[in-house]
Amino acid sequence: MTRSASQMTPDELARACAEAMWQNDDASRGLGMSLDHVGPGTATLSMTVEQRHTNGHDICHGGFIFTLADSAFAFACNSYNNIVVAQHNSITFVAPGKLGDRLTAVAREVARFGRSGIYDARVTDQNGTLIAEFRGNSRAIKGTHIPD
């Protein structure tokens, strides 16, 4: 018997929403990302930089770093059982990701107000070196992940 969203704790709800999203997230899974943690307003995703992720400078293409941060942002802002999409995102690249690096994006809620939210995601490598800082603005639309 499946519990409704209103019967779940905030952590259970965040995990249930993430599981529902992950099943359909062909982009994140297809790029080799893993969903490592999710909680109310937070999510951690990681991926290993493979040859297919490198650019003409033989470093991780910025688009893949952005996508990792954006995916962490998506799971963080969708953790309350509302369908939420990106309204605006920006990223600052600090250091290159290199072939073989394990990059981790940790997204955390900064503020949630009305249908909008602000989230920051920090991307680091396996040594804790800062690779990029990401800020995402979210907007809730109609719908839920889990029936209430």
TrEMBL record:
It comes from the Bacteria. InterPro entries: Acyl-CoA_thioesterase_PaaI, HotDog_dom_sf, PaaD, PAAI_dom, Thioestr_dom. Residues 59-131 form the Thioesterase domain. Keywords: Hydrolase. It is an enzyme of class 3 (hydrolase). Pfam families: 4HBT. Gene3D superfamilies: Hotdog Thioesterase (3.10.129.10). The keyword Transferase does not apply. NCBIfam families: PaaD (TIGR02286), unchar_dom_1 (TIGR00369). This is Hydroxyphenylacetyl-CoA thioesterase PaaI.
